[in-house]
């Protein structure tokens, strides 16, 4: 997970429609910049556009099953998409 904030501005990130090495290249609507996680680096790097060579901070995260998460965080909620 990455921060969407840079220089006090909150970016709206979305999939650009491009992939590189089987990973999505992201796009921000505010500056039309492209963002990618470069191997061996921390954060999400702007590879093209206004913030070229700048990074969005990477947050710590864990991968676990939902039931394990709820055991540790019993007040958690989720949004269910209507079918």
Task: Summarize the structure in words.
This protein is mainly β and 83 residues long. The protein has one domain. Helix content is 8%, strand content 34%. The chain is built from one helix and seven strands. The strands form two sheets. The chain has a five-stranded antiparallel β-sheet, with no helix packed on it. Strand 6 and strand 7 form a beta hairpin. The chain is elongated and about 40 Å long. The model has no long low-confidence stretch (mean pLDDT 93).
Largest sheet, spatial ordering of strands: 3-4-5-6-7
Q: Tell me which oligomeric state these chains represent.
A: single chain
The fraction of residues in strands falls at 25-35%
| Fraction of helical residues | under 10%
Indicate the mean pLDDT. 93
Domains counted in the coordinates: how many? Answer: 1
Detail the poorly predicted runs.
none
Q: Report, as a whole number of angstroms, the end-to-end distance.
A: 27 Å
Task: Please tell me what the overall shape is.
Answer: elongated
Question: Element order, helices and strands?
Answer: EEEEEEEH
Number of helices: 1
**How big is the Rg?**
16 Å
Class by SSE composition:
mainly beta
**Main β-sheet, in a few words?**
5 strands, antiparallel
